[in-house]
Amino acid sequence: MTEQQGSAKTGFSYSVSARVAAPAARVWEAWTTPEQYVQWFGAKPGSVALDVRPGGAWKATLVFPDGTEFPLTGSYVEVEQPRRLVMSMDVPGAEPGIMVADFADAAEGGEAGTDVTLSQTSPTAEERDQSKQGSEMLLQQLSAYLG
């Protein structure tokens, strides 16, 4: 997994990447099909709704190992199948944000697969660090699911 982080005048940004052992079309399906999304995202069954089109809404309720539920909602800002999703995110206790998910064919090392990069800008360093940790967890779960 690779990462970058920085501080911009408009907020605190990060970018994390991982190579997933699946073609971009398969990664896209995992992100945009509720039945697949619930299997790797850590969402409560029945809580996922994905209207994958610009302006379409999405929602999912994360369930942590201790049983704590964490509702997430947002909308799709940009949809470029199978390469890019830009989503607004409303997270309890945090300012609304934008997450960018890019899916690129693996080009280095002779490995097949897709390089998945998640990027986000947050208003505070603390929110950035929490979001970055969540994105790293998502990449690990996605890799395990598509393994």
Automatic annotation (TrEMBL):
Domain Activator of Hsp90 ATPase homologue 1/2-like C-terminal: 22-147
Membrane-traversing stretches: none
Pfam families xref list: AHSA1 (PF08327)
CDD domains given in the database record: SRPBCC_CalC_Aha1-like (cd07814)
Region (Disordered): 110-136
Protein family according to the UniProt entry: Belongs to the AHA1 family.
This protein's name: SRPBCC domain-containing protein
